[in-house]
Design brief:
Blueprint lengths: L2 H11 L16 E2 L12 H13 L14 H9 L10 E3 L3 H14 L6 E5 L4 H14 L2 E5 L1 H7 L4 E7 L11 H10 L3 E5 L11 H4 L3 E4 L14 E4 L43 H10 L8 H22 L4 E2 L10 E5 L3 H10 L2 E2 L1 E3 L3 E5 L7 H13 L2
Parallel strand pairs: 1-11, 3-4, 3-5, 5-6, 6-7
Antiparallel strand pairs: 2-8, 7-8, 9-10, 10-13, 12-13
This protein binds pyridoxal-5'-phosphate (PLP).
């Protein structure tokens, strides 16, 4: 069977093929960048029109009492099952960067007397900048350590470890169970960045005892450009955590307008200021696509798409340098090290295959199982061959 016959058969047999119709994706494109910006679910535009035209225009200020004020916890509650969290531990708002700042400072405050933060050596840059900034304020030092060496590096000096669940360049999936257990064995807390795993693969925060987690919603959750991020605080810390951006939205009684801060109950305390309602309700609408699909089904297709992409590369471009693990210790992306990758990606985009380029030499292809077809993956490999 040729690769194109195989792609056609895999698409025909794909149990998630029906979901593609729920997205507004240009049929001319093979969009393989859902790990940077997810495609819009069709439900989003009419929902936003309703939020603006009815809730904002007609109900005006009254809408804050008709669901807006509670939206951060309510939408967080919809994300919770995707990250293995029982209700009441996830809130939506602000960016991943801001939430990481909150989580990391809260974590180190729970471990007084320990002066070191261990950071995933391959982290997405913002986590490093935020860790350095937080450490400067709290008097900690940040030590960057490859994830494989974290378990050996963590000690009684370590307050917290900060790890990306999936490496944003290679797509490698890190072992949340092992890293969390190693941190805990030395009395440190584990802070996870789930940007490339939420919506791509099952995450088991509660089961593995993770302490804090953050993640963005505009990648595999398709919330839209700049849609607000989420913050998870494990139930064991909900009483005691003390976050550094305590603002009025997290107050126990915000409309009392008290001069003194008193944190609200539970995850409410993680909030800072007025929620970004338009973006948050766009995300809320985008989450409807999960109503009739499980993260396990999405994971199965994500791995199958990746396996098929690797097979296409092996047949069409046997010299390709694949950075992503071939075994299933990866997220939903395939990354290649490629000469002159920036120019090559520009050429692919000209030909309707949209992936992305990460300096100095990486081509990244994101696989979004809710709308990516096997045909798209084959086309990426085929076009890549014509360009080389
Ligand atoms: C995309 C991404 C971010 C983005 O952070 P923002 O504050 O939302 O811009 C952070 N961390 C990781 C690992 C990412 O992949």
């Amino acid at each position: 069977m040729s690769l194109s016959e195989l792609a056609a058969e895999l698409d025909a047999r794909d149990p998630l093929a029906r979901k593609r119709a729920e997205f507004d994706v240009d049929p001319e494109l093979s969009y393989l960048d859902g790990n940077s910006l997810g495609a819009p679910p069709r439900a989003v535009a009419p929902r936003l029109a309703e939020v603006v035209g009815r809730a904002w225009a007609r109900r005006l200020i009254r809408s804050w009492d008709e669901g807006w004020w509670e939206a951060p916890e309510r939408v967080g509650g919809r994300i919770a099952p995707l990250v293995g969290a029982a209700p009441g531990q996830v809130v939506v708002g602000d960016s991943t960067s801001v939430n990481l700042f909150k989580a990391l400072v809260a974590a180190v405050r729970l471990r007084p007397g320990r002066h070191e933060i261990l950071l995933d050596g391959g982290t997405f840059p913002t986590d490093g900048y935020i860790a350095d900034g937080a450490a400067g304020l709290t008097g900690h030092t940040v030590r960057r350590v490859p994830v494989d060496e974290l378990a050996a590096a963590v000690s009684e000096r370590t307050a917290a470890v900060v790890v990306n669940h999936v490496d944003f360049v290679s797509g490698r999936l890190h072992d949340m169970a092992a890293v969390t257990a190693a941190a805990h064995a030395s009395g440190a807390l584990a802070v996870w960045d789930l940007c490339h795993s939420v919506g791509a693969l099952p995450v088991r925060l509660d089961e593995l005892g993770a302490d804090f987690a953050v993640g963005c919603t505009y990648k595999f959750l398709n919330g839209g450009p700049g849609s607000p991020a989420f913050l998870y605080v494990a139930s064991k810390w909900l009483e005691s955590f003390d976050q550094p951006l305590a603002g009025w939205a997290g107050h126990r009684d915000p409309f009392a307008m008290s001069a003194d801060y008193a944190g609200g109950r539970g995850i409410r305390k993680a909030r800072t200021g007025t929620p970004d309602i338009l973006s948050m309700l766009a995300l809320d609408a985008a989450l409807d696509v999960w109503d009739d699909v499980t993260i396990d089904e999405v994971r199965a297709k994500g791995l199958a798409l990746g396996d098929f992409f690797l097979r296409c590369l092996d047949e069409l471009l046997p010299d390709a340098r694949v950075l992503t693990p071939r075994e299933h210790r990866r997220g939903n992306q395939i990354a290649l090290s490629w000469p002159d990758a920036g120019t090559v990606m520009a050429g692919l985009i000209d030909r309707g295959v949209i992936g992305d380029f990460r300096p100095p030499d990486t081509l990244r292809f994101g696989l979004a199982p809710l709308y990516t077809r096997y045909h798209d993956v084959l086309r990426a490999a085929t076009e890549l061959r014509t360009l080389t």
